[in-house]
Every structure is written in C-alpha cells, then in structure tokens.
Amino acid sequence: MIRLEINGKAYEVEVAPDVPLLWVIRERLKLTGTKFGCGIGMCGSCTVHMDGKAIRSCQTPVGDAQGTKITTIEGLPEIHPIKKAWLEEDVPQCGYCQSGQIMQAAALLNEDPHPSEAEIIEHMNGNLCRCGTYTKIKSAIRLASMGGKQ
C-alpha cells in the first residue's frame, strides 16, 4: 500500500512502488489535469510539485513520492497569481500543455518571485508547447511576478 498526500488530501493506493506517479494521479485518483505527453520526462506536460519543486511525474516512481507533499494543477488555488496572469494574457491555444506550463511557472515564482527574463526562459526550457505560445507564457510569468501590473 502506497500512502500519498496530494493537494492536502491523504490517499492510499494499492500499486507497485515503481509505477510512475503520473499514472496513479490520473488513473487511480482521477486527477486528470496532469497530462501525459512524451512519457520520458522531456515535454513537461506531466509537471507537478513535490515538496514545492517542479518534477516530471511520468519519471517519478510513486514509491519516491511517499512522505512528500504533492500538488497538481487541481491543488493550485484559482487565485494563484500565475493562474490569473495566464487568463489575463490569454495564453492557451489548444491547452494541452498548459497545466504543466503553469506548474513549472508556479515553482519558479515560489523560488524567485521576481525572475529576470533570462531566468524565466531558463526555468521554462524543456516545457514544450506545440502551439508555440512561448511569448504569451513569458508575458504571463512576468505579469504574475509584478503583481498583475505590466
């Protein structure tokens, strides 16, 4: 039995410890905001927070998540500055990668509330967007870092 804390709620799941955290989140717990993209940790669609740090849930064995605090897109408050900025900047096109992008950006702002443009680009590097909304993503992160005033 694997014990997890996700979005402040305790869960017990009967699954092998080497099963990727992504599949437990999506298939067992039905928290489908976290997306499957590439399955090899290269696209960022599956990004969640583990103890406040952005991780790729497709590459994290669920056994490694025991004893940590996991946050998915569903657990990030609607009033979070990055979610508000995302809407204000009208970032999504198809939207598939957006939960991973938002979680990666939220982790950046947790570490550095006022990142430079270079720091934004470096931190977001590796989160892929097929629609190419990178300019809007960067603008939303800057907006959130400035308290919603740009």
What report would you give on this structure?
With 150 residues, this protein is an alpha+beta fold. It has helices at 21-28, 62-65, 81-88, 98-111, 117-124, 134-145, and strands spanning 2-6, 9-13, 47-50, 53-56, 69-71. The chain is built from six helices and five strands. A five-stranded mixed β-sheet has the order 2-1-5-3-4, with helices on both faces. Helix 3 packs across helix 6. The radius of gyration is 15 Å and the shape is globular. It starts with a strand and ends in a 5-residue tail after the last helix.
Question: What is the gist of this entry?
Answer:
The chain has 150 residues and is an alpha+beta fold.
Topology:
Blueprint: E1 2-6, E2 9-13, H1 21-28, E3 47-50, E4 53-56, H2 62-65, E5 69-71, H3 81-88, H4 98-111, H5 117-124, H6 134-145
Parallel strand pairs: 1-5
Antiparallel strand pairs: 1-2, 3-4, 3-5
Reported for the largest beta sheet, the result is: 5 strands, mixed
Order of helices and strands: EEHEEHEHHHH
User: Strands of the largest sheet, in order across it?
Assistant: 2-1-5-3-4
Determine the strand fraction and express it as a percent band. 5-15%
Shape: globular
Poorly predicted ranges:
none
Mean pLDDT: 96
Number of strands: 5
The helicity comes to 25-40%
Radius of gyration over all CA atoms, rounded: 15 Å
The helix count comes to 6
Briefly note the structural class of the backbone. alpha+beta
Q: Give the termini separation.
A: 48 Å
